[in-house]
Amino acid sequence: MAEPLCAAAHDVLTSRLALSAHPAENWDYAAGHGGIVPTQDNPRPAQAPVTSFPLRPISPAKGVLLSVEPKRTLSMASIRRNHCRTTEDTVTITVSTVFGYDARLPVRPPLSPPDLVLRSADEVYFYLHSHILLEASSNSFQGLISTTGSANYPVIRCDDKALLLTVVLASVYRLPSLPQAANVETLLSAIRVLQHYGFPPGRYVVAGTPLFERIVSFERDDPINVFATAAEFELDALASHVSQHLLSVDITSLPNETAVRIGPLYLKRLLSLHRRRVHTLKTLLLQPPSPHPFSVRCDFQMQESVNKAWALAAAALAWEARPDLSAATIQSTLLSLAQHLPCSLCNAAFTARVTHVVTQWLLTSKTL
Asked: What's the mean pLDDT in 166-179?
């Protein structure tokens, strides 16, 4: 819900938001900071919201802290009650480095000045654009943003932390990159938060989007959790991509909670993938090497012994057939018999058959 900030912080936020409504010539600009500082020569416009706190932006290189120096005595007890970090003469708030008031977001067309402020659970402030959030959300940002408009700039309090909100908002704004600090747990949580605030995950987690690509880069670390999340939100492209890393998973040993998250449809598809690959391997091993015309050095009995050797090796592989059986294991197991063949023609046919089996196994689909 929208809530007031502490007196000093609220004045700062609303003053910054109000600046865009007034001509630039009425203000002095702080060199090198991109901030605006009212002076005695250039006082605030009469129609602007009046505040007793001149804005003093710090250097961007030092972070995202905005310092406010009060011109009047302020009740420090009331400030502390509102969770602002304070000293005897300074009130400090933390502003998002990505969604700051003066942030130049790489979007087209260029955005108008922000018209609302979002406050995260860890006391970081985001300057946002209500029209972008309302157009993308199906529930008005979980009902936190008014669709009727207001003369005041609302400050919305969220229960999510700044890093998670940055990932979510960067996806909604279609920014080209995400915070490097976001790990796989944060990225997967962002999918759930997108859904919570009315942003369809299927719109923002598709191949080519930053969120999709970042999750894919982590999928080896926790493939079953990525697959379960993808299945839970019906993100077919993500589920299919990560399924190649689940070939070694024993589906029957999955925890009940994970199985419930995956659901019957994607569990069936994963099981079908495993069974399909095992069946393909057995089918490839079933066909022995092609025979060659009989000769004095290689008659029917000798070629039959070659077929028996193949059948013995194939049976051993088929008995231990797994969806993730490596091509190198198949090749080394079968070729170990070829070196004992006295006939060069049998050896060539045997090697050709091994090459065909390995090639077809490598071409067998590893995804849903």
From this structure: 95
* DSSP-based three-state secondary structure for 301: helix
Q: Say if residues 13 and 5 touch (Cβ distance below 8 Å).
A: yes
The residue whose two tokens read 């998670």 is 164
Which residue, among 116, 257, 138, has the nearest Cα to 201 in the 3D structure? 138
User: In 10 A of CB 158, how many CB atoms?
Assistant: 20
- Whole-angstrom CA distances from 134 to 49, 116, 142, 188 are 26, 12, 10, 23
β-strands 85-86, 65-68 pairing: unpaired
d(CA 110, CA 117): 19
Strand-pair partners of 102 = none
Task: Calculate what percentage of the chain has a pLDDT beyond 70.
Answer: 74
How far apart, in whole angstroms, are the C-alpha atoms of residue 148 and residue 246?
A: 49
3-state secondary structure of 117: strand
- How far is C-alpha 215 from the chain's CA centre? 4
Distance CA 317, CA 7 (A): 74
Side chain identity, residue 156: I
Residue 359 predicted with pLDDT over 60: yes
Pairing of strands 91-95, 85-86: antiparallel
171 and 206 in contact (C-beta within 8 Å)? no
Computed on alpha carbons and rounded to an integer, the radius of gyration of the chain in Å comes to: 32
Which residue is listed with tokens 């480095």? 97
Q: Measured between alpha carbons, how far is 304 from 19 in angstroms, rounded to an integer?
A: 91
Residue in the structure block whose two tokens are 């719109």: 203
Residue 326: how many CB atoms within 10 A of its CB? 12
Distance of CA 135 to the CA centre of its chain: 22
Whether omega for the bond prior to residue 210 falls within 30 degrees of 0, making it cis, is no
Average the pLDDT over 200-212 and give the result.
96
C-alpha–C-alpha distance, residues 51 and 12, integer Å? 8
74: which 2 tokens? 């302020």
Tell me the torsion sign for CA atoms 85, 90, 95, 101: positive
Kind of pairing between the strands at 116-119 and 91-95? unpaired
Q: How far apart are CA 107 and CA 111, in angstroms?
A: 8
**Phi, psi for 255 (deg, rounded to 5):** -60, 150
